[in-house]
Amino acid sequence: MLRKRTLLGAALLVAIGVVFGALFVMSFNGVGDTLGITGKKIKLGGDAPIPRADVNLLATQQAFIEVAKDVTPAVVSVTVISTPQSSSPDIPFFHNFQFHLPQPQPEKGTGSGVIVTTDGYIITNNHVVEGAVKNGIKVRLYDKRVLTARLIGTDPNTDVAVIKIEASNLPVAALGNSDSVQVGEWVLAIGNPLNLTSTVTAGIVSAQGRNIDLSNDKWGISDFIQTDAVINPGNSGGALVDITGRVVGINTAIATRTGFYQGYGFAIPINLVRKTAEDIIEFGHVRRPMLGVQLKASIDGTDARALGLPKPEGVWVQGFTSGSPAEKAGLKAGDVILSVDGVDVNAPNEIQTLIAEHSPGDVVKLKIFRDGKILYKSVTLAEVSESELSSNDQVAPPDNGQTQEDIGQVSVAKLGITVQTLDQETKKAADIDEGVIVADVSPTGPAADRSLLVGDIITEVNHQRVGSPKDLMNLLSNKKQGDAVMLRVLTKQDTSYISRFVAVEIGG
Fold it and tell me: Whole-angstrom Cα distance, residue 254 to residue 226?
């Protein structure tokens, strides 16, 4: 009896479940219909027409794709184990005590490199491999092989290094012509930033000829291609490539306050890199050519008016080094170099780079502006000697603390200075017979704006000799406010004097 009642109860429960289940499904299907979910297979996007992309944009995109495919296999990852810095204090008082300080650990850094020969020569940055221990340079290829590299040589002045792996039939990057690079053209940066291998970023060339003062060496070359293609730590030594797939620069630095990308990166022009690397491979060092000129930083509007230039352009020759090839070829102090081998120049670092792309013994053709005329001079480049390269004496500021005899002082209001006659001791030290020395510079006068300093000796005004304060006043007498004059000035450097030109606008 109990069993029958149990069976009837179970059957009743099943029947109730079936009814409620059916109602639930019907309810769910109804809601599903309102949501468009009916269990049927749908096609997202419907039958919307395919957007019509511009054929030029598609061609540009395809160019990026092809460049990445072609060049990425020739860009390697470089890992360097470098000599650790000592952590033991070198304090004489503690020399008799024994310390058990933790030993400094080797430092590990990463960068990139560009394969330039099928048998394994690779270009990278000097700062990537600097201080590497023996067998401490490892190269990871695109095909995942890891090989030990041998250091062939470095050039800190250009931040270029060459390393070599033992391999064959390697992919090689094509090298372009950095002299033809233009602001605004597309470039790709290829490297291994932040331990992310084979990374490609795109941007444009945002400036050329950037001097970012990476080196305090007087022979250091600072003439970089600036780009907004993303460059981060680890990109150093990698390739900056144009839209045709040719390497136009070797990435080396970024403008940053955090250590990471903040908008701009810099690359060494490939023409300079190529010549430097070829010298390292062939001679074991860089054969550095020399023009032998001292140049003014830039020419502005005041300089141009004083020189008689139609517009501010070119680079102003201030003087020459001893035995200068340029002076032997007929250049004179006060000349303005307008171009080197047909390439216009407007800054000293531009000339420096164009000369550095040559070898000693090469002949370069200079376009010169002198006294309102255009001249052409051919100069045979000399080689910078090892002694000159090893010397890195910096130009010392003039000694402004010296006192002068208060004799023959004259206030030159048009320049904002006070000058006085030279004493015999100063004439002997400067190896001159005449001139006037600057005894005071008004901080609000026009001369102060042009870096004329107390202790400078003025020897010429517009190529006319100055023998006394009276001569200086006479040479300025017909100059009115807004005119510009060119002064030949001797500035004290250590115990001797260097010659320079200073263009000053006449004040009220």
Answer: 9
C-alpha R_g of the chain: 35
Residue 153 pairs with which residues in a beta bridge? 162
Place of tokens 């150093």: 236
Residue 276 and residue 155 in contact, taking contact as beta carbons nearer than 8 Å: yes
> Annotated catalytic residue: which of 77, 127, 242, 358?
127
Query: How is residue 310 written in tokens?
Result: 């139609």
**Angstrom distance (rounded) from CA 376 to CA 368:** 6
Q: What is the pLDDT of residue 54?
A: 84
* d(C-alpha 289, C-alpha 181), whole Å: 23
Contact 458, 478 (CB under 8 A): no
Task: For residue 111, give every residue at least 6 positions away whose Cβ sits within 8 Å of its Cβ, in sequence order, or none.
Answer: 77, 78, 80, 124, 125, 128, 129, 191, 192, 234, 235, 236, 237, 238
Would residue 127 show up in a list of annotated catalytic residues for this protein?
yes
Q: Write down the residue that tokens 């209001």 correspond to.
A: 413
**What confidence score (pLDDT) does residue 441 get?**
87
Please report the sign of the dihedral spanned by the C-alpha atoms of residue 207, residue 208, residue 209, residue 213.
Answer: positive
What does the pLDDT read at residue 115?
97
pLDDT of residue 16: 53
129 and 78 Cβ atoms separated by less than 8 Å: yes
- Give one DSSP letter per residue of 83-106, joined into a string: PPPP-S---GGGTTS---PPPPPP
Catalytic choice (77, 222, 236, 324): 236
In which residue ranges of the chain is pLDDT below 70? 1-39, 84-105, 212-222, 254-263, 386-408, 508
Q: What is the C-alpha separation between 167 and 76, in angstroms, rounded?
A: 13
Q: How far apart are CA 134 and CA 381, in angstroms?
A: 37
285 is catalytic: no
- Give one DSSP letter per residue of 372-418, joined into a string: TEEEEEEEEPEEPPHHHHH--PPPPPP-TT------S-EEETTTTEE
Catalytic residue among 159, 223, 228, 335: 159
Cα–Cα distance measured from residue 410 to residue 419, given in angstroms and rounded to the nearest whole number: 5
CB-based contact 106:82 (threshold 8 Å) = yes
DSSP tag of 62: H
Written as six digits, the tokens of 198 are 């084979």
Condensed to tens digits (0 to 9), the pLDDT of residues 184-209 reads 999 999 998 888 888 999 999 998 88
Backbone angle region of 283, left / alpha / beta, with phi > 0 → left and psi within -120 to 50 → alpha: alpha
Half-sphere exposure in the Cβ direction for 177 (13 Å, CA): 2
pLDDT at 165: 96
Instruction: Evaluate if pTM is beyond 0.70.
Output: no
Look at residue 401 in the predicted model and tell me its pLDDT. 35
Can you tell me the distance from the alpha carbon of 226 to that of 211, in angstroms, rounded to the nearest whole number?
10
Active site residue 119: no
